[in-house]
Structure formats: C-alpha cells, structure tokens
Fold this sequence. Notes:
Structural class: mainly alpha
Number of domains: 1
Order of helices and strands: HHHHHHHHH
CATH superfamily: Phosphate transport system protein phou homolog 2, domain 2
Strand content: under 5%
Number of helices: 9
CATH class: Mainly Alpha
Amino acid sequence: MPTTNPFASLFSKSPFTFLQQHMRAVQECVHEIPPLFEALSEGDDARVNAIKDRIFAHEGEADRIKNDLRGHLPKSLFMPVDRRDLLEVLQMQDSIADTAQDIAGLLVERPMGFPEFMQEPMLALARRCVDVCDESAKIIEELDELLEMGFRGREATRVEDMVSRLNLIEDETDELGLQLARRLFEHEDEIKPVSVMMWYQLIEWVGDLADYAEKVGDRLRLLIAR
Length: 226
C-alpha cells in the first residue's frame, strides 16, 4: 500500500534531500549579506531594512525545514550514515543562517554608520565568506552521488578535493578578518568605543559564516572516512 507520509517518500528517494533543501534556504540568507553592507555603505536605510526582512524570512524558512525534518527523521536509516551525523551537519548549516540573521538584526537595531575605512575590506570579507558557503553547498549537492558510490571511489576523492578547496578559501577569510580587525583598531579613536565593540563583533560574525560552512565540509569528510 502506498505511503501517505510525504516525509517517508522523501527519505525513500534520498536521505540527504532534507540537507540539500535546508542548505538552499541557508544560502538565500547568506547571499543577502554583501548587499546588506552595500546598502549600509550607501546610507540607504530603507534598503537595509528590506534586506534584513528578507534575511529573517529566509532564516524562518530554514528553521521550518529543520524543525519539520528533525521531527520526521527516522530513528534508523538503512544507509552507511549515522543519524546523529546527519543532525550535526544540519545544525552546522543552521548556524550559518542564524549568524546571518544576527548580523542583519544588529545592523538594524543599532544604527552606527559604516566607517569609510571599513567599507571596502568588510565587503571583501563578506563576499569571500559567501564563497565558502557556496562551496559547502556544492558539496551537499554531491551527497546523492556519493551515497550511490558507497562513499568510495572517484566521487569520494572529488568530494575530498572540494572540501580541501573549501578549507583553503576559509583560510583566506580568516586572514581578511584579521586584517580588518587591525584596521578597525588602528582607527578606533575615530569612532565611539561602543561602536568599536559592535564592529568587532560584526567582523567575527561575518567570519563565522565561513567557519560554520567549513565545519559542514569537515563533518562530511569524516562521513567519508568512516
């Protein structure tokens, strides 16, 4: 008798479909971050608020997918992947969306201007962090083929190479973040002390987008190793 449970149908097709759906919603959040800082640099408050609203909407969709699928994920799956490992990947992905929401929320809740000396390097950092998240999403999209190959062979090697590339790009974001923090402290006397603290927090949060994306890749590398 055909099942009427849409989630059962979902998992019968691929145990990774939910991770892919969730990651696509996460990407929608992350892709709004560079435009958010662009709007801030232009002093366009209406656009900043509009982008913030979109990020919150995308994050809400990511949460909906996460919560629905956590509740319907079978206790055991007939595949060479532990349920806990899948949930850990899901949590790392969700942390990316949460961080994007935190960035947007702070920029709207505490207007503090965008110091000119920070604009170009912050945009460079944000864009490179998006690159890391996109690399992570590409790996997630490869999971079906990886499963078909039993986590072995050329596909596993290809995913390993993708994770290595992700790690290299994330290293770049670390350096960009350090350079931006140094620039902030070089000019700290030009802005209010509380604003210095808030901008330092924002630098860390933008960097966290890449950090969580790297953790997604590292977790998947462990799945292959097992």
